[in-house]
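Service request form, structural biology core

Requester: graduate student, group of Dr. S.
Request type: structure prediction, single chain
Budget code: on file
Notes: please return the result as structure tokens.

Sequence provided:
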Amino acid sequence: MKTLIYVEKEQLPGIKLAHFEVLNTQEDVKHRDKQLMNALTLGNLDHLKVKLHLCDADMNHLLVETTVWAVTDTRVCLKGNINIPKKAILQVEINELLIQN
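Core staff response, request fulfilled:
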């Protein structure tokens, strides 16, 4: 298992993130898309942060806590006008209590 490296969102522009799909199945991709939409709603309505598990170009696992402001077909826009490739996201970690209410 790879070590999870915590990074600040401000560091992301200096990191070469994966531009290839890091997930193995179409089902995983659909789940990530659903979680990103939940994160987008939480970010826009309540300005709440989520944890994004990312892969860099060398497949190191990174963790960043941030607010998701926009989601396109290929990119995710974070607070501070930082854009990352959607394909680099392994997992979106949302406190499930936040989306049950």
